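The methods section describes the discrete structure representation at length, but only in general terms. Since the whole study asks how a given chain folds, the encoding of that fold should be made plain. An entry of this sort, consisting of the sequence and the corresponding backbone structure tokens, reads as follows:

. . .
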Amino acid sequence: MTDVVIVGGGIAGASAACKLAAGGLSVVLLEKQESYNDLVRGEWLAPWGIREAQRLGVYDCFGAGGAWEIREWMTWDEAVDPHEVEAVDMTRFIPGIGGPYSFPHHQVCELMAAQAVDSGATLIMNAAKIEVKAGRRPSVSYLTPEGAREEIRPKLVLGATGRGCTVGRQVGITMRNHMHHWGGGVMIEGLDDWPADVQAMGTEGDVMFMVFPQGYGKARLYLNFGVKDSRKYRGPGAMDRFLGAFELECLPDRGRAVVESRQAGPLSVWPSVSSVPEGPPLTEGVVLIGDEAGNADTVLGTGLSCAMRDARTVCDILLEGDDWSPPVFEPYVKEREFRLSRLDFGAQIISRLHVEFGPAAVERRRRVRKLMAKNFAAQVTGLLNMVAPEEVPEFGFSEFFAERLFRESA
């Protein structure tokens, strides 16, 4: 009998498969792709997410899959004189961990899936039209490439299909969604003149930009932009417009290194939606993990770290005993609700600061930066990128703090 079926072979699902199979459970991992390909997903893992990867036993998959340590963070911005931009040392936040990782998402997932198989899990790729039914004896069915429908009746289903929430929607778990802006991303190569261990972000004109090097001249580029520009980076000439958006006064040499780079993967754009579950992210026989269980705005960059925390927490519960009824997952539900509330709050502050445009927004950023320079406590939200949410001081998550941050900057 199958103990656990995991629907979704991304970071959350594949890492959970590794942990559970290594713990002796019978695991089936279903992935809808025929093979792991670049789908333009998050490719940045915070130091606290790296610590979760170590606890899950999948840390080596990142190194073997091409993970690149980022050691410094530069924030270039039209509200800041380029000569005043200072590098933030990203290796100092969690002793023994180092800086965050930038990595090829699909390559790491492929290695995790292989590790799960080596530990005894069954991997089924190209599983189409997956259907999940909750209950004390849940069922999962899918179409094979030959068109046959196969069914598995495990003890438990883990839904890990990401922001599409395929499993959650089928079992009646609803989300409260909010969209502040749009985002887009692409892999590039030929970025040889960019410092290899420096990530960058900033805002100028009508875009917020991000550059995450992955070594050897490769990098993942992201743009965040307003809803009115939702179609700007689609259709003929989209890649030229995307790279052209990095020709910015605030970047060294007007961003020439980025503008002259070459496309090395698909360009994708999406509405940057935050989703908060309207109840527990589980029901009888089904537990959601990763983005499927709710997520903060992608501007924060903590989605993969959350996925690792979810996988580790739920796997620990499953490996502790035979009772897998909903009440047993209450610690997971409470911790995740607390974590997501903090991340969502922090993402709203960052979105307001960096993904709003025009003269008033520029002045707001300029004033907030001056406030942060005078009062280090005002920078507390930035810690969310580095350390786990529970380790960030509580005062940074109050409406009073947010109101004072923006009011005093005015």
